[in-house]
Amino acid sequence: MLGRRPDQGSFFEADTQYLESVGKESFYGFLAGLRGQLFRDEEFATFYDKQGRGRPSVPPSLLATALLLQTYDRVSDDEAKQRADFDLRWKVALGIPIERHPFAKSTLQLFRAQLVVHDEARKLFQKSLRLAQQQGYVVRNRKLRLALDTTNILGRGAVKDTYNLLADGIVLVLRQLAQVRAVELAEAAGERGLGRYVSARSIKGEAELDWDNAKERARLLREIVADADRLLVEVREVRAILGEDGAQDGALKQAGERLSQVLLQDIERREEGATLREGVAKDRMPSVHDPEMRHGHKSAHKRFDGHKAQIAVDTESQLITAVALLAGNAPDSSGALALVEAAEKNSEAEAAETVADCAFGDGATRQVFADAGRSLVAKVAVTRNRDCFPKTSFRIDLATETCVCPAGKTGVARYSKEHTLRGFRFADETCAACPLRSQCVRGRGGRSIAVHPQEALLQQARALQQSPAFQPYKRARQAVEHRLARLVQLGIRQARYVGRRKTLFQLLMAATVANLTLLAGHAAAGNRQSLLEGAFVLALAALCIASPLPKSPLWPIVGLTHRSSAQARTDQPSPHRFAKTAHSRPHF
Description:
Layout: H1 14-22, H2 27-33, H3 60-73, H4 77-86, H5 88-94, H6 105-117, H7 121-134, E1 143-154, H8 162-181, H9 185-191, H10 195-199, H11 203-206, H12 214-242, H13 247-266, E2 267-270, E3 273-276, E4 294-297, E5 303-314, E6 320-327, H14 336-347, E7 350-356, H15 363-371, E8 376-378, E9 395-397, E10 402-404, E11 412-415, E12 421-425, H16 428-432, E13 448-450, H17 455-465, H18 471-476, H19 478-489, H20 500-546, H21 555-558, H22 565-570, H23 575-581
Parallel strand pairs: 1-7, 7-8
Antiparallel strand pairs: 1-5, 2-3, 4-5, 5-6, 9-10, 11-12, 12-13
């Protein structure tokens, strides 16, 4: 049943006794001050028995806070358990007595699994944005300027070559077949003559062959492929006996599909036998242990295996307003509009414009935003044509459907079957006689220029980025780069879990902690400012008491007793008045 924390704190709890020692302005002290405000136990009631049966659970608000601390300190489940038991900072943040051991490692793991299954981690992330509104860090119903960007996350599974990848797939199938028969893995492998796959750490490392000999390499590959084919035949036979509704059938089917995928993506069937496929198959799976990992690249030279984290940041407050997890081989701009809409929903505000880098500046993404009536400011990728004039050197007027080359010649428009402008073609004789031909055309014919389907949007974007008005957008985009750097500090460069769904949970928790640390820093700065203002007022009051302010400039008129009789008769001010007021302090 659901366990609850009392709203009234106890004198014996660590935050009551040791908050000053840990520091009110630290992240631990900040979490301690949010007890009962950030998380409420009843918000997690769906995780527990509705009838109230069983003994009370560990309060889920405490476990949610422990997950934030685990993300902040980047520790394992076992270390999180140890810190909750013995670390004074954690005890202050959790609000528990010093002698209390609040939870077991399995309890924390089960609670995290519930968050993943019920997709509740997104609600934890949204709470950080609600807290920012409650504390006055951001204003409700304001216009947002969002900045979008991505970064890579390395997958949890081991990336292997085709030989070892096939061997891992064979072991997966053998393990499921062994469970069906209720025997040990080694016994199931030995019965089928496949013992080398479970006894060796690497099938290539244990193979006794000359790796410089292509025929021996081909022989080993064909042996492995033959073993995989034989196992897949057995999988189909066993599944026919088990039926399609059992749990064992589902696990066996999944293992067989992974092995089949490796064969399809990496093996080419020829008359002489199985050989390695040339090149990399589309959507290739590099690990059977984490099948959702993909080959990706952030640039032509920076490659990785895993996933992509996509985030939206409010450039004014620097709060992360939305996150998404993409496949490693997905374009950076995938689902950009959906991310903006999620940011609006989470922030309860409307996005006035969106800023991104050139990875989001393709024509298709611009068209999606334009169709939705949204503003997207993203740099257009530089067009290059080696040592010849690029397309941007030609003046293309879409209104008149004309194109003028750098030499001042006009090309002939070309149209599609639907009478849509496709491009321009310059006559061969015109280009042959042009003095700039060596800088424009490499072949024998004339130059041709293609018109992009979103050419008008791209021209508008190029005009903006060449104007001074583009500079504020470049500076605004730095906010998302800083937030990505903070997420990397919190450990998202390496996935902690297998699978995209669990990795998304890791990303959401890191984004939540990044927002909360930003709020904690803002609260600490506000406290310091209040202390400085209070100290200034006290110092000013003490100064006024020690040295009274000068009398009013009218005091010689009111206090006639300070004048001589002659001065009173001639109505002349006392010379002491000027001596007194010339050096007096200014009024505050």
